Amino acid sequence: MISRRDFIKGIFLSPIFADWFLKDISIEKGAPPFYNVGIYPLSGKYSYIGRYTKIVIEFTNYLIETGHPLLVEFFGKNFKVIASFLDDKSQEFMDTILGVKLKEYPDILFVHGSYASNLTEKLKFSCYISKVPLVNFISTASNLTNTANDYFVRTCASNSKIIFKLLYDFIPKNFRGNFALLHVPNTYGFDVFLNLKKKLLFNPLKKFFVFYQPITNLTNLEASVEILKKKEVNLLINALYLQGFKKLLKYLHSINYYPTIVSLTYAYKSFLEDIKDIFNKFEIYYVDHRGSYFKDNFLKINEIFKLKTRLTLDTNLARIFQGYLIALYPLVFNVNSTDNYIKILKNIRIAKNRLFLDWDDVIFENSENIGAKVELKKWILA
Fold first, then answer.
1. Cβ-count burial of 108 within 10 angstroms (0-12 exposed, 13-18 middle, 19+ buried)?
2. Assigned CATH class of 1-159
3. Is-contact 233 197, C-beta < 8 A?
4. If exposure means fewest CB atoms within 10 Å of the residue's CB, which of 13, 120, 121, 325 is most exposed?
5. DSSP label at 15?
6. 123: Cβ–Cβ under 8 A, 6 or more apart, which residues?
């Protein structure tokens, strides 16, 4: 069993790319180190990706059985993957998960897309008792108020991949403080915020990170921010709508609080014109909904839009993803087919410390981060 501190080394594999892993890249030729780990139940609503998940589970178990060094490095030889593909409301589904002996629980538990009341509370409690970190991808705030797990992460389904990249690449390697996720307002009322504040922010077991889903309407913004400042949160993941993002920046400035912001909301120059001076006081990284990562100041925002298919990764941001640039490709290009993905990989070339993609003239500028270049080159040439 890996330690709590080290559990963040786990790497999540999107089931969408599972077939690509098996068909086009062999283990012997250096497949990237992405593995689906833990129990992976799927609701009936998401059954269309069940076939991919099945492949992922089989692939992961194969790696475990053969003692693949990358997986053993993270989890040891006895790491176990347990899967269920039944409907949320199925009793067999519950028995499959909750019937597992505690000693057989996985090191990390991923739950993808579930509204099921008969799953979340019992499962969260079981995970808490067995000290298993639980990561839940759900798109509503239902069944969220009584979570007992201090590593519970709630994300919006549409942003789950992006947030995982932040959790497993950016934050563990470069950040040792608290961070918060300000999510899109929902309709479940202020009680959700109060319960999460009590269960998560002030959980005495929390040592490294604060997972936060606070704002049900913008009138609660000030109270939420005050809590974050008191907890010395210095990295904020913003997923508010534009009006909320603007109000957030104004209020942060009014209390002289300038955390680094990773924003899933892109702030158009014209929209922020009246707070231009405030905006420039913050260090803001943008992550758009296609998964593109970039950082720039206010005056150059429009220039980025003009680039269209060209994406420049500055050296500071490139350093954040050292050794993992290959992981960004499915997100950066919004790849929706295996053929396009393979086409991208075949058209990579490296010259003068830059990573070039001839496909659609996309450029990764990486003049200082030699580590990422070497890792990528090793993978391409394997």
1. buried
2. alpha beta
3. no
4. 121
5. G
6. 97, 98, 109, 111, 134
Under DSSP, is residue 295 helix (H, G, I), strand (E, B) or coil? Answer: strand
Type of residue numbered 377: K
Q: Which residues, 6 or more positions from 101, have their beta carbon under 8 angstroms from its beta carbon?
A: none
118 vs 125, 143, 302, CA distance in Å? 12, 9, 48
- CA-to-CA distance for 351 and 366, rounded, in angstroms? 10
The CATH architecture that domain 175-295 belongs to is 3-Layer(aba) Sandwich (3.40)
List pLDDT tens digits, range 83-119.
333 233 333 433 444 433 333 344 444 444 333 334 4
The amino acid that residue 348 corresponds to is I
Strand 233-238, strand 362-365: pairing: unpaired
Q: 143-186, pLDDT tens digit by residue?
A: 333 332 222 333 332 333 333 333 433 333 443 444 444 443 33
User: Where does the chain have alpha helices with state H?
Assistant: 18-24, 50-65, 69-75, 91-98, 117-129, 160-165, 171-174, 190-196, 221-230, 242-254, 276-279, 301-307, 315-320, 325-332, 338-346, 370-381
Instruction: Tally the C-alpha atoms within 13 A of residue 120's C-alpha that lie toward its C-beta.
Output: 22
Q: Which residue has the tokens 């490294």?
A: 208
How far apart CA 212 and CA 180 sit, in angstroms, is 5
Question: Where do the H-state alpha helices sit in 66-218?
Answer: 69-75, 91-98, 117-129, 160-165, 171-174, 190-196
Q: And the tokens for 59?
A: 């692939």
pTM across the whole model: 0.33
What tens digit of pLDDT does each residue of 308-348 get?
Answer: 222 233 332 322 222 222 333 333 333 333 333 334 333 43
Catalogue the E-assigned strands of 201-301. Answer: 233-238, 260-263, 284-287, 293-295
> Cα dist. 268→209, 271, 273, 296, 297 in Å?
30, 5, 9, 12, 12
